[in-house]
Amino acid sequence: MYRTHTCGELRASDEGKRVVLAGWIERIRDLGGVKFIVLRDRYGRTQIVVNPDSPAYETVTQLSREDVINIEGVVRKRPPNAVTSELTGEIEVLAEKLNILSKSDLPPFYPGDDVSEEMRLKYRYLDLRTQRMTNNIITRHKLAFAARRYLSENNFLEIETPYLTKSTPEGARDFLVPSRLKKGSFYALPQSPQLMKQILMVSGMDRYFQIVRCFRDEDLRADRQPEFTQIDIEMSFVHMEDVLQLAEELIRSMYAEVGIKLPEKFDRISYEEAMEKYGSDKPDRRYGMELQDLTQFFKSSEFKIIQDVLSKGGSVKGFKARIPMSRKIADEYSEFVKNFGLGGVLWFRLENGQIASTTVKYLEKEYTEISKAYSMEEGDVFILAAHDNRERLSEALGALRLKIGREHVKVEGFDALWVIDFPFLEWSEEENRFVARHHPFTMPYEEDINSGVELSKVRAHAYDMVINGFEVGGGSIRIHSRELQEKVFDIIGLTKEEAQEKFGFFLDALRYGVPPHGGIAFGLDRLAAIAVGADNIREVIAFPKTSSGTCLLTNAPSKVYPSQLEELGITLKE
């Protein structure tokens, strides 16, 4: 028997028990000839004591850190001055037998050492031995388990959809898989099971879910991976309200499983309100500092920079903050907003009851009015900017607000909300056409379509769940009319032939009786990262890719043998 108990299990009540433990050696100490071993597994740590007269003593001299051993011995209480706060801190095991199961070479680092992320990913099996990473993976498992339990208890069926599917490029690039049997043809790894889950609704499977891998060949950042995991959900005979209520209950139950209490009711704000107040469609409201429209204060301003913007129909916006401010800091903020197409920022603060600013001699009247209107107090700072594109202005100030919040505001707790009423379409400068903001299967507001409003003003029955400034889930009510679906394809510039080529199988399904349906998909990686307080989803994925899409553990992607390419009918160009 390798073990009777885990290394995190034994307590003072187990005193006198004969036990067998197995694990990795974290530390070995010698105190007056007595050997103390800290034995570790994923459940915790237990101190092992080997006396010089123990039959196991000779074997201890052969041991080194990270060796895998098992020991047999008797549980005893520690002396009062040796008790620690560890789960097993009241006891130790007096070893009588010790077996070496596997020797470890000298590792490039020991679990818990402060090393680069590159080293951690290359030797991920060492990194995963740390208590922090172990806890992260356990938290992820608990969230997934809670989702399965909740959805199963609510009559959802877990149904698998294909990983080898048809390429229907809309948005991110597909990962393509060549077919050996049909040379020149390719499968695509699914970016999401979107069409398949809608077809399941047509099939009568009225409540579907799947914890599914998805694949997108796109540029990566902290919260993106080329392969990621979704909790995918679809429901028939539902309105938007039905989906939102179920999704809230699901996420509350998942987070409760890991000891996190979310609000009893999630606030709802429109996309337009989110952009106006926070400059983001995934606002983190914990920072406060809402954006304010200040245009009215500058209508008669003679300050040329603002005068020029207002003459073009532009706006002035800003926000109040309690932060240090100097010319150097203001220059840094100006450089930051230039990345968004703005010329820079203006600022003023209240100092000894007076307005202080590098531009006070030009704008003292305006600054004074703003300070009174927004009840500024000693030390408050107002940061503002102007631009003729209101959306760009909001986005820039929203990004600056987040930067300042992360650097200067200590936040606690969880803020959860829905963002609803997204634009149905957005204009793509790159493609010179309207594209679907979410995807082209989202139901638009019928009153917007029928009233003949501008396409850019049409709203969608789409919704995103946002927790602490991260979009953790997104979904919509779907189009269930073939005629409307074809009309949408036409609006986004797909000819009938292109629509038939890409989505013919789906359009055919829409001919045979389609229930009203909608759904949502949650990013399990993001939910787990928020739960453990990680900035990067790589911290909650066992074997993640780097920001360049490579796996440092296996060196994937890698070259393949010429014979494999020949078998697939593929020739590489230099």
From TrEMBL:
<feature type="binding site">
    <location>
        <position position="216"/>
    </location>
    <ligand>
        <name>L-aspartate</name>
    </ligand>
</feature>
<keyword id="KW-0547">Nucleotide-binding</keyword>
<feature type="binding site">
    <location>
        <position position="225"/>
    </location>
    <ligand>
        <name>ATP</name>
    </ligand>
</feature>
<dbReference type="InterPro" id="IPR047089">
    <property type="entry name" value="Asp-tRNA-ligase_1_N"/>
</dbReference>
<comment type="function">
    <text>Catalyzes the attachment of L-aspartate to tRNA(Asp) in a two-step reaction: L-aspartate is first activated by ATP to form Asp-AMP and then transferred to the acceptor end of tRNA(Asp).</text>
</comment>
<feature type="binding site">
    <location>
        <begin position="216"/>
        <end position="218"/>
    </location>
    <ligand>
        <name>ATP</name>
    </ligand>
</feature>
<feature type="region of interest" description="Aspartate">
    <location>
        <begin position="194"/>
        <end position="197"/>
    </location>
</feature>
<keyword id="KW-0030">Aminoacyl-tRNA synthetase</keyword>
<feature type="binding site">
    <location>
        <begin position="523"/>
        <end position="526"/>
    </location>
    <ligand>
        <name>ATP</name>
    </ligand>
</feature>
<feature type="binding site">
    <location>
        <position position="471"/>
    </location>
    <ligand>
        <name>ATP</name>
    </ligand>
</feature>
<comment type="similarity">
    <text>Belongs to the class-II aminoacyl-tRNA synthetase family. Type 1 subfamily.</text>
</comment>
<dbReference type="Pfam" id="PF01336">
    <property type="entry name" value="tRNA_anti-codon"/>
</dbReference>
<dbReference type="InterPro" id="IPR047090">
    <property type="entry name" value="AspRS_core"/>
</dbReference>
<dbReference type="Pfam" id="PF00152">
    <property type="entry name" value="tRNA-synt_2"/>
</dbReference>
<dbReference type="GO" id="GO:0005737">
    <property type="term" value="C:cytoplasm"/>
</dbReference>
<dbReference type="InterPro" id="IPR004115">
    <property type="entry name" value="GAD-like_sf"/>
</dbReference>
<dbReference type="InterPro" id="IPR012340">
    <property type="entry name" value="NA-bd_OB-fold"/>
</dbReference>
<dbReference type="GO" id="GO:0004815">
    <property type="term" value="F:aspartate-tRNA ligase activity"/>
</dbReference>
<feature type="binding site">
    <location>
        <position position="478"/>
    </location>
    <ligand>
        <name>L-aspartate</name>
    </ligand>
</feature>
<dbReference type="InterPro" id="IPR004364">
    <property type="entry name" value="Aa-tRNA-synt_II"/>
</dbReference>
<dbReference type="InterPro" id="IPR045864">
    <property type="entry name" value="aa-tRNA-synth_II/BPL/LPL"/>
</dbReference>
<feature type="domain" description="Aminoacyl-transfer RNA synthetases class-II family profile">
    <location>
        <begin position="146"/>
        <end position="544"/>
    </location>
</feature>
<keyword id="KW-0648">Protein biosynthesis</keyword>
<dbReference type="InterPro" id="IPR004365">
    <property type="entry name" value="NA-bd_OB_tRNA"/>
</dbReference>
<dbReference type="InterPro" id="IPR004524">
    <property type="entry name" value="Asp-tRNA-ligase_1"/>
</dbReference>
<feature type="binding site">
    <location>
        <position position="170"/>
    </location>
    <ligand>
        <name>L-aspartate</name>
    </ligand>
</feature>
<dbReference type="GO" id="GO:0005524">
    <property type="term" value="F:ATP binding"/>
</dbReference>
<keyword id="KW-0067">ATP-binding</keyword>
<protein>
    <recommendedName>
        <fullName>Aspartate--tRNA ligase</fullName>
        <ecNumber>6.1.1.12</ecNumber>
    </recommendedName>
</protein>
<keyword id="KW-0436">Ligase</keyword>
<dbReference type="InterPro" id="IPR006195">
    <property type="entry name" value="aa-tRNA-synth_II"/>
</dbReference>
<dbReference type="InterPro" id="IPR002312">
    <property type="entry name" value="Asp/Asn-tRNA-synth_IIb"/>
</dbReference>
<dbReference type="GO" id="GO:0003676">
    <property type="term" value="F:nucleic acid binding"/>
</dbReference>
<keyword id="KW-0963">Cytoplasm</keyword>
<dbReference type="GO" id="GO:0006422">
    <property type="term" value="P:aspartyl-tRNA aminoacylation"/>
</dbReference>
<dbReference type="Pfam" id="PF02938">
    <property type="entry name" value="GAD"/>
</dbReference>
<comment type="subunit">
    <text>Homodimer.</text>
</comment>
<feature type="binding site">
    <location>
        <position position="438"/>
    </location>
    <ligand>
        <name>L-aspartate</name>
    </ligand>
</feature>
<dbReference type="InterPro" id="IPR029351">
    <property type="entry name" value="GAD_dom"/>
</dbReference>
